[in-house]
Design a protein that fits this description.
Chain A: It is a multi-pass membrane protein. The complex is a heterodimer of chains A (282) and B (264). Chain A has one domain (75-277): MetI-like fold, CATH 1.10.3720. Chain A is 76% helix and 0% strand. Chain A has helices at 2-37, 70-106, 108-122, 126-137, 141-168, 171-178, 183-219, 231-238, 247-274, 276-281. In chain A, helix 2 packs antiparallel against helix 3 (108-122), helix 4 (126-137) crosses helix 5 and helix 7 runs parallel beside helix 8. The longest helix of chain A has 37 residues, at 70-106. Chain A is globular. Chain B has a domain at 2-95 and 165-248: P-loop containing nucleotide triphosphate hydrolases (Rossmann fold), CATH 3.40.50.300. Chain B is 36% helix and 25% strand. Classes of the chains: A mainly alpha (282), B alpha/beta (264).
Chain lengths: 282, 264
């Protein structure tokens, strides 16, 4: 009885999550369509006569301290924040996964050297390394991306390596070698598909963290530079007006919360979908 | 004609030796059985022939095949030999196939690595190989998990013999199969050996599997070959007490209680 109840509850929770995810994604779709079809403001157009306006038909979410349309900046900021987040993630995966597979398949000294390098990256907290690196390289979104890649490739390399190590002893890898395949081809055709499933799960869980990292570093002035409509930078811009116009901070803050929530939901969903180990355990 | 000639082969790990100075020859078209307990170094010998030893194991001695010493061959030339002249089948038929590739993709991979054939020719060749091991053509599009153990082992035989190798190394291919399937696999190997004329190095711990098929038997114990002779000679007039023990401990219907005689 209790087991049935637990199963039902789990099922219920899964459905609820799926519904929430669907709702959020459709919201995002509406936002994208609106951006592409309706939006006609310039996000960087300064108009001092229109500063700090409240909501109106012309400016659905009002204007900021330089008279720029807030909705326009929020929507185009999604491109910046989410776009750069995805880009950073992609580069981290493209750098990390091949290194991990290679270290795993070679083993021995190469493996040990690679993993000690990875360990030394892991021993510092993400945010600190990102702040130090983008501080050293100079403020700017490119340097911030570089810093994030440097921080994040490690976990993908480790994940790929551990998957490869659990697979490489199996006979089908031996069989592929017997059949005369080169190491590169074995990596691509026989090991990469094993790794990809796990990587997708980790990446979708990571997306939220990366977006948060970009926004928080932009907030303290290390990431996107004004007048770029990046959410963290918008939060920073709005700080002096928090008492008179709190909505200027609330909107970008809310966007960050929503996007991180969506990417976490997406990550959970992917994990439930692809992660076989969880299935076996429960 | 000698297909494979192993001379003074020793294999050693970081701490201890696994195989000590073994020598044997395999003639063309011969069924050569290497028999011994698990841990006696049979599989390591098989791995050494294809340069497939784990990185921490080292082989010394000579393994001659087609006028070349396989132990000193650079990796590029070894890739040419593997699959084409020497090919393998394993005990773990399930693990021998990449789970997310179809049987057909496994055929494609071997063919594209070693041959230059058109797509239609490749398909044709794979189909006739499947039929030759008693599988239907439909198996080409199936995934490994959709086939039974016996079918998978047949498919792996089909792939191993696709390029007409001089030597097939069968590392306990029937151990994980039920007795009916293993009988069929053995019959199939014997038939294909007659058709293709390849030599078979058959590795097993169970003399029952070789009694009917093997031409010659080598008995291995603790990394040494203690006895090599024609199969009938070894089975009926064993020279070593260990061989006698091995024969007696193989369960057979003619000798229902092997234990009393095992202690001799």
């Amino acid at each position: 009885m209790e087991i049935m109840h637990a199963v039902n509850a789990a099922l219920h929770r899964t459905r609820l999550k799926a519904a929430a995810l669907l709702f959020m994604l459709s919201l995002a779709l509406v936002a994208v369509l609106y951006t592409l079809l309706v939006l006609n403001h310039d996000p960087n157009l300064v108009s001092l006569t229109e500063r700090l306006l409240p909501m109106s038909l012309g400016h659905p979410l009002g204007t900021d301290h330089l008279g720029r349309d807030v909705l326009t900046r929020l929507l185009l900021g999604a491109q910046q924040t989410v776009g750069y987040g995805l880009l950073a993630l992609l580069i981290a995966v493209v750098v990390g996964v091949p290194i991990g597979i290679w270290a795993g398949i070679k083993g021995g000294l190469i493996d040990r050297i690679m993993m000690r390098i990875a360990d030394s990256f892991l021993s510092f907290p993400d945010t600190i390394v990102a702040i130090v690196l983008s501080g050293l390289l100079g403020a700017g979104i490119e340097n911030l991306l570089l810093a994030i890649v440097v921080v994040k490739w490690v976990s993908y390399a480790r994940l790929a390596r551990s998957t490869v190590i659990s697979e490489r002893e199996k006979d089908y890898i031996l069989m592929a070698r017997i059949n005369g395949l080169r190491t590169g081809r074995i990596m691509r055709k026989h090991l990469l598909p094993h790794v990809i499933g796990h990587v997708v799960v980790l990446a979708s869980l990571d997306l939220g963290k990366i977006i948060l990292l970009i926004s928080s570093l932009s907030y303290i002035g290390l990431g996107a530079q004004p007048p770029a409509p990046e959410w963290g930078a918008m939060l920073n811009d709005a700080r002096p007006y928090f008492q008179s116009n709190p909505t200027l901070m609330i909107y970008p803050g809310l966007m960050i919360v929503l996007v991180v929530l969506v990417s976490n939901l997406l990550g959970d969903y992917c994990r439930d979908k692809f992660d076989v180990t969880k299935e076996v355990q429960s | 004609m000698t297909v494979l000639s192993v001379k003074q082969l020793s294999i050693a790990g970081p701490q201890n030796g696994v195989v000590h100075q073994i020598s044997f020859d395999i003639q063309q078209g011969e069924w050569f059985a290497l028999v011994g307990q698990s841990g006696s170094g049979k599989s390591m010998t098989a791995s050494a022939i294809g340069q497939l030893l784990p990185p921490n194991m080292k082989a010394t001695g000579e393994i001659w095949c087609g006028g070349r010493n396989l132990l000193s061959l650079p990796p590029g030339e070894m890739r040419e030999i593997r699959g084409k002249r020497v090919s393998y089948i394993f005990q773990d038929y399930q693990g021998s196939f990449t789970p997310f590739h179809t049987i057909g993709q496994h055929f494609e991979e071997v063919q594209r690595t070693h041959l230059t054939l058109s797509k239609a020719e490749r398909r044709q060749q794979a189909n006739s190989a499947l039929i030759s091991v008693g599988l239907q053509e439909e198996m080409y599009d199936r995934y490994p998990a959709q086939l039974s153990g016996g079918q998978l082992q047949r498919a792996s035989i089909a792939i191993a013999l696709l390029l007409r190798p001089d030597l097939l190394i069968a590392d306990e291919p029937t151990t994980a199969l039920d007795s009916m399937s293993s009988f069929r696999v053995l019959e199939l190997l014997a038939k294909l050996q007659q058709d293709t004329g390849c030599a078979i190095l058959f590795i097993t711990h169970d003399l029952r599997h070789v009694r009917k098929y093997a031409d010659r038997i080598a008995v291995m114990k603790d990394g040494h070959i203690i006895e090599t002779d024609a199969a009938q000679q070894v089975l009926h007039q064993p020279q070593q007490s260990f061989t006698r023990l091995l024969i007696h401990s193989s369960f057979s219907f003619g000798n229902l209680n092997p234990l009393p005689s095992a202690g001799e």
